[in-house]
Amino acid sequence: MGDRLAARWPVFPYDATVRISLWLSVVVTAVLFGWGAWQRRWIADDGLIVLRTVRNLLAGNGPVFNAGERIEANTSTVWTYLVTLGAWLGGPVRMEYVALAFALTLSVLGVVLAMLGTGRLYAPSLQGRRALLLPAGALVYIAVPPARDFATSGLENGLVLAYLGLLWWMMVCWSQALRRPNPVSSKYFDATLAAVAGLSVLIRPELALIGGGALVMMLIAARGWRRRVLIVVAGGLLPVAYQIFRMGYYGLLVPGTAVAKDASGSKWAQGLTYLTNFNQPYLLWVPVMLLAALGVVLLTTRTRPWWVRHQVPRGYGWLARTVQSPAAVVLFMFVSGLLQAIYWVRQGGDFMHGRVLLTPLFCLLIPVAVIPVVLPDGTKFTRETGYLLAAATSVLWAAVVGWSIWAANSPGLGADATRVTYSGIVDERRFYSQATGHAHPLTAADYLDYPRMRAVLTAIDNTPDGALLLPSGNYDVWDVVPAFPPPPDLTPAERRALRTPHTVFFTNMGMLGMNVGLDVRVIDQIGLTNPLAMHTQRLTDGRIGHDKNLFPDWAVAEGPFLKTRPYIPAYLDEDWIAQAQAALACPATESMLTSVRGEMSPRRFLSNLAHAYDFTKYRIDRVPLYDLQRCGLPVPEPKKPPYTGMPATGP
After folding, report:
1. Pairwise CA distance, residues 434 & 421, whole Å
2. φ and ψ of 397, to 5 deg
3. Which end of the chain is more exposed for a tag (fewer CB within 10 A), N or C?
4. Whole domain around residue 206: which residue ranges?
5. Entry's InterPro entries (predicted)?
6. DSSP conformation class of 632
7. How does residue 387 score in pLDDT terms, banded at 50, 70 and 90?
């Protein structure tokens, strides 16, 4: 048994200094990261959106945000179901604490796996040599304040770190398999690695660039068609199965969030602003230069690994050996980080400071997560040269440590952290801490202290017959559009059994959705939970991440609410409501809405599957009159004379 394991897994006879220093580095970095993240613990409003979906899953309503409306409001499929599993197993434990525990644990695990993978990368060249493996790239990552912010945000950032750390460690193992005296490529390991790579698109859609690249490398290096079939099946089975489910159940090719934010669009100028916003507070170019210099020194001191074969194994050509090599894996991860960064800059970044650039940063830092400081032994260099190189490495590493200490205590965005300025970017954790009055807003109950939250519960209680609630300018009051009154001849028992329609139209649907019952429909104007808003066009100059804005007239038009004065607020227009109601009769719009609201059946599933592409591309105009013109429908007669300008004046 031991011989078989030794044949499959390279055994690197580390010097004690290497092994001890690596594990000390891992433990110290993990403790620092965990402690730093705990000091900044919180749950974001977007994290609460996930928990609303989890509530519906556990209640038997399916993976939806609002019961009876199949909207995939969460970007990370795996994160949603992982939290659901944890909440189910946790029983009475609050979902927020389940999400917090998962997020923090996975964040720390991701950094640990990254460091172990990089340690394994350097291990062969350190065989028989005394060296210290010290944290470098890992230290840079955990020093950046947003990295610690989003380690406990209730979002999937921790899952992404754990995934990338695991993929990196496995890719390093895979790259070293052919470079042993007795190369053995385990089909079980290849299948597992392929399955992990294929999972990327379910972690976050844009990670398909990384997972897909790993699968391509494996297919190029695979020997024989059977191994290639195994890789394709293992890597594609779960993603393809879920994609079929998504198309049939939600009627879309991508998560609803991708449609809401038009992930295929481009906002280069805003993306560069976002990149600058992330770089400037922490001077990220400093560690980049220091780590680049460290890379040059490491290449200078590198020795040829003792285990590299001089003969090509039978069945492996030059291309296969080149692709399945440590150098190729390092290049793959580095290029993946660059592609992720370019994607997000093109997309326009995000409204949360630093969040979406953390993944590219992590990918770029992984190859130098730890760095070796080789103690001079006089083998490759003279002792004097060896001491000089060790000193240079130590000085550069000390500079990285110094920058990390400074960055970890940086004020970040400073005075602009909680203000929505022209860039639209805020420090989300500080924003909600200030707005709720809680240093660590962790639960939905904490968010009741956010403006308007307690008032919405009062408004729902005060409208037993149902209503549409719209946010007013007064934080303690909601504007109410009453629902059509129930029949007056109901018996008391029938009235108690009557399900009254409540809909709340608000941007912060996470905190709202977690503080109201699942029988309350929560929709937004930016399209994360509202199918109509989701299918509007992206505003050119809108705030990034919020650059769709559906007028509330549509919410009145599509619901069972009174649509005329005096029952609607003064800022709503009766004609717009009538036009929106008419626009909802557009056949294409009706088909799109039926795909998410119609009763699910085998026929509905197959219909959605066939039309998912059309529904994904479908867009309406947020101005009802223009949407009527787009669809070729007649405009309803105006309820009031059209405005023709100021009356004529003069003699």
Report:
1. 16
2. -65, -40
3. C
4. 16-308+316-416
5. AftB-like, AftB-like_mycobacteriaceae, AftB_C
6. T
7. confident
Residues 380 and 520 in one domain: no
Which of 149, 165, 168, 142 is closest to 40 using CA atoms? 149
Indicate whether 184 and 254 sit together in one domain. Answer: yes
The closest of 393, 356, 377 to 545, measured between CA atoms, is 356
Same domain (yes/no): 351, 412 = yes
**DSSP, residue by residue, 417-438:** TTS--TT--B-HHHHHHHHHT-
Assigned domain for 480 exists: yes
Share of the chain above pLDDT 90, in %: 75
For residue 324, give the amino acid letter: Q
For residue 643, is it within any domain? no
Confidence check: pLDDT of 303 > 70: no
Q: Which of 596, 527, 594 is nearest to 67 (CA)?
A: 596
Query: pLDDT tens digit string along 213-233?
Result: 999 999 999 888 999 999 999
Rounded to whole angstroms, the Cα distance separating 1 from 420 reads 62
- Number of domains the chain is built from: 2
CB 143 within 8 A of CB 31: no
> In the structure encoding, which two tokens stand for residue 266, read together?
């481009």
**pLDDT at residue 645 above 90?**
no
- How far is residue 625's CA from residue 636's CA, in Å, rounded to a whole number? 9
Contacts of 424 (CB under 8 A, 6+ apart): 270, 351, 543, 544, 545, 546
pTM higher than the cut 0.90: yes
Structure tokens that stand for 14 in this block? 């580390």
Instruction: Tell me which residue of 561, 376, 600, 413 sits closest to 481, measured CA to CA.
Output: 561
Q: Residue 261 gets which letter from DSSP? A: T
611 located within any domain = yes
